[in-house]
Amino acid sequence: IHNMLRGKWKNRGKKIHIIGSDRWNGISIGKTWGWGEFIAFDQYLRRKLGRGLQGRTRREIVKEISSRYGDHWQRWQLERYADHLIASQEKFREHGLSMTFETHGSFPFAGGELGRKLARTHIGVGTDLFWELRRQDLYWSLGTRFAVVAVNPDLRSGAYNQWGWVNSELNRYWFANSGSVEPARRQWYSTYYAGRIDLRGEFQPYHVFGFSSQGGHSTQFTRTDIRYYTRTVNLMTQLRPEQVTGHGIVVSWALQERRMGPRLGRQGFGLYPEDRWQPVDTTMGHVYHRLVKQGVPISFVTSTHALKSWQGGKPLIIVDGFNLDAWEFDHLERLNARRTPVFAIGAPDDSDHSRALQFFGLRQTQSGLEPALPQTIAVVPGDGVTVFIRRSKAHAPRLYCPCPPEEIPGTILPQFAKLWLEQTGHAIQVPPGIVPYPFIAQNRLFITFNDQGDFSRRIRVRIRPAILKPGLDPAGIRVIDVDRATVIPCRREADSIVFAFPIGASDGRMFLIDAKHAKE
């Protein structure tokens, strides 16, 4: 504060942005925390529960916290972290200065009211994408990373200014990123045009702050790399998602908190459930990568807390959506009545499911779930997996698959995804192996098509533009290849347009679907 007001930074601005050190995942209580934290936690327990820690040695205290107070320990740590940052922000504000904080590696993993508090200070996280490519799989990595903001969609993520980080074996070495143009462009086109519905129910770009550049660029950053990298970065900074389109994926932070317990399981920068439960970011990763790889256009993320204020309209995929609380189903009911299709995926847990059964029109029998209403049908796409579909003139389709997403066989995924796409109007139809991402920028519809294959090909796609952007008439459409700045031929088929284009192996391509000019 002294430097900003009177010292070496005087007259250089009124904002300070603090960048923290690398994230603290998996911290062991016995190896990290000391007596100061144990005493403070004991005082917290006495205020909260009326009783404190019983252990007297360090070993006894670590064991007691890990077995009896795991949920309280995690909440106390993260609440204290959030409160300290807000106190610092307020101190700066007293002197006419604003303060924001950037974590490195990950945002704090928390939603609900605690997440809202954290979002007041946190902006511009370095997510370690693309350096931390998981399973050599871009879409698994994106699904588990996007979940961090899905649970708390008020967080304002940063972007990484990295090019060619496409192999997790090479990524571990700084400046060894050596991917070619095509997969590097696919990473950017698959990542930086996503959106989120924030806790006010408003659509926002997922990435709003850039750039972090840990690791930088490779020593093999050739002239060709520089040319295409520059073009890709310029597009990303000038085309920002502005309106909701495509499908949304929704997580329940209330469910994650309900699965926290006294036995401390996984630890990290956030709140995690007991070991018998899978964290919501992992579950969302399973749902996300399975669906987008089958052509489901997931363009935004959010949480059930944000649905309280959202007016709906776009199809929603609910992660673990049979195990929600009653209030969450109340908001799904309201949105579904406003013509928002809903698809819940995930096995029933041991909680009360009376509200879920009512919502999907099902009943529980000794042999499992079965339709309880004439409007609900059971469809078996294959391999014993069932999808229940409830249709009604009064609301949009409601689908439920009572199977853990990680157990859905790959052999049936095309049929599985097709069921959902048929119920939502098949806005985009692509060949196998293509991942589409629609977004609206500057009041115009853009779509990126991202190939998962190892060979170049020519593909044909079908678009229903009015579903993606209401009012866009297929009778007067032109398609512009944004990468090559050319208009490409397209033809109208009823309410759809069809066009074809070449795409390289593992490449990303971008197109503008726009109304023709008067002179065309």
Written overview of the protein:
This protein is of the alpha/beta class. Among the domains are: about 245-425, Class I glutamine amidotransferase (GATase) domain (Rossmann fold, 3-Layer(aba) Sandwich), CATH 3.40.50.880; about 435-515, Sandwich (Immunoglobulin-like), CATH 2.60.40. About 30% of the residues lie in helices and about 25% in strands. The strands form 6 sheets. It has a 9-stranded mixed beta sheet. The protein has a 5-stranded antiparallel beta sheet with strand order 17-18-24-20-21. A 4-stranded antiparallel beta sheet has the order 16-19-23-22, with no helix packed on it. A hairpin with a 2-residue loop joins strand 14 and strand 15 (about 395-400). Helix 7 packs across helix 12 (about 280-290). The chain is globular and about 75 Å long. The N and C termini lie far apart (about 60 Å).
Quick take:
With 520 residues, the chain is an alpha/beta fold. It is built from 17 helices and 24 strands. Among the domains are: 179 residues, Class I glutamine amidotransferase (GATase) domain (Rossmann fold, 3-Layer(aba) Sandwich); 82 residues, Golgi alpha-mannosidase II (Immunoglobulin-like, Sandwich), CATH 2.60.40.1180.
CATH topology of one domain: Rossmann fold
Structural class: alpha/beta
Radius of gyration: 24 Å
Beta-strand fraction estimate = 25-35%
Largest sheet: 9 strands, mixed
Name the quaternary structure: single chain
Measure the end-to-end span. 59 Å
- CATH superfamily grouping of one domain: Class I glutamine amidotransferase (GATase) domain
Helix percentage: 25-40%
Shape: globular
Architecture of one domain, CATH level 2? 3-Layer(aba) Sandwich
